[in-house]
Amino acid sequence: MTGWERARLSDVLGQRVIYRNLAPQDPGLPGLRDLWSQAGLASYLIPRKTSVEYARTVWLILEHAQRARGEPQPLERVLLIGDSARNDGGVARNMALERPSRAFIGTEDRTLPPSARIDGDQMSANRWSALSEMLRWLECSAFRCDESTAVLVDLDKTLIGARGRNDPIIDLARVRAAERTASGALGATFDVEGFRRLYARLIRPECHWITEDNQDYVAYLCVMVVGDVFPEPSFWTALETREISSLMVFCDRCEDRADRMSSGLLRAHREVRAGLLSQDPTPFKSFRNDEFLETIALMDLLPDTSTPEEVLASEIAITAEVLEVCRLLAARGALVFGLSDKPDEASLPTAKLAERGYRPIHDTVMKVHGERIY
What we know:
By secondary structure, this protein is an alpha/beta fold. It has helices at about 10-15, 30-35, 50-70, 85-95, 130-140, 165-185, 190-200, 210, 215-225, 230-240, 245-255, 265-275, 285-295, 310-315, 320-330, 350-355, and strands at about 5, 15-20, 75-80, 100-105, 115-120, 120-125, 150-155, 320, 335-340, 365-370.
């Protein structure tokens, strides 16, 4: 291969991007802090992606974005493109409670013949190139994609790091970030192999009852256990007996042992504890700041002579099929908006990093890989 197409997500999305905090990157648009009451929340708390309140907040932001772009027609319908039937499909189902909605859930599984299945208002496919079939399905079902349509596009493992094709590199950035954070907290005593074994075990579904599938929780547990605040044998026993029944209980037990922590461990513990007490879904922000750095480091690092196999094994790439659909639907007048559950701290540079030239993930150049779909 002699050359690669490169792009930024902002080339098609502009600043119409929302990360976990539901604060649009377009400063002219309101976010959750302005809309929580209208969305049906009792107070300002970041809702889960699968909740009705999350969908309501996103829809309110979309309505403001529609007016901000000077479009006289109100939004009437929404199309969601993602990789998770539970999370992305859940947003679409909750949107459908109040307006017409369709969803495309994609992955890439080359061990199976190409397949695209329609179940009600959702198409699921094992090829990203099946987005061409999605377009035909929408046309046949009279689901218009025009100025009155919002298109929500998931970022991680959909528009970038396509699931089944390139997603392990997104996970690699997170693992490297966890190791970087642990190394900073533990210094010379950091046991990297022990950390990796523990991390690999804690991210399994059978541990979701304690981790809640939250990488901040996983990283904190690993740091405290590998740091010997809560030695590993007794840690697993406490989980099995449910002596430790939640992360807050674990955090309380670590608080009782604060006098045995090094300064680095204590700093990490205090940060997470403060976040848990304030019900912040991203309590380990220093870990997420490290994730931002590790993610950016895996974008557009190989030369133009690199093969697709080399790039997909080493870099986070933009999914060509999804990018192409976004461009097409935007050209038809649809409001195309990026949606991500990745924490803002893992997606945006700190002020100091911005001064050094770092850009948000959606403003960073990446290689584009995939098939043409039309």
